Amino acid sequence: MLEKVICLRGIISIEAIELFTNHERVMKRFLPAFRLKAAHIMVKDYKITQQQAAVTLGTTQAAISKYLKENSEKYTGIKLDAESLKNFVELVKKKDEQGAQKIMCRLCQVNGKFDCTFMVK
Which domain holds residue 70? Predict the structure, then answer.
C-alpha cells in the first residue's frame, strides 16, 4: 500500500517527499561543493575563463567569482576527489557531455547514498 501524507496542496506520497528531500540535498549541498571545486580546477589549472566555466557548470560568472573566493571547508562532508574532477574538466573540454555527466552522477551518488532518478548510467 502506498503511504501518503497531506500537504497544503493535497495528498502526496512518501516517495515524492523522499525525492524532494534528495533533490534538496543535491541542490543545496552537493552541487555548490562540486561547482566550487570544479571552478577552481577549470580557472586555475586549465585557464578556462570564469564565463566559460559558468556556462559549463550551469551558473553565472558572478557565482564562479564567488566560488573562487570561497574555501571548500564550507562544504564539509562532501567527498570530491581531485582526479575525478580533473577527468570531468577534461571531458568537458573534449565536449563529451555524457562522460562528464557520468562522473558528476557517480560523485553525487557517493555523497548522497540515495537512489537518484536523474542518474546517467
Answer: 14-112
Do 32 and 75 contact (CB within 8 A), yes or no?
Answer: yes
54-108 pLDDT, tens digit per residue, is 998 889 999 999 999 987 777 777 888 889 999 999 998 898 988 988 898 888 8
* Residue 118, C-alpha cell as written in the block: 536523474
Q: Which residues contact 110 (CB under 8 A, 6 or more apart)?
A: 79
Contacts with 37 (C-beta within 8 Å, 6 or more apart), sequence order: 72, 80, 82, 85
d(CA 14, CA 73): 33
Secondary structure of 40-106 in the HEC alphabet? HHHHHHCCCCHHHHHHHHCCCHHHHHHHHHCCHHHHCCCCCCHHHHHHHHHHHHCCCHHHHHHHHHH
| 117 domain-assigned | no
Radius of gyration of the chain (CA): 17
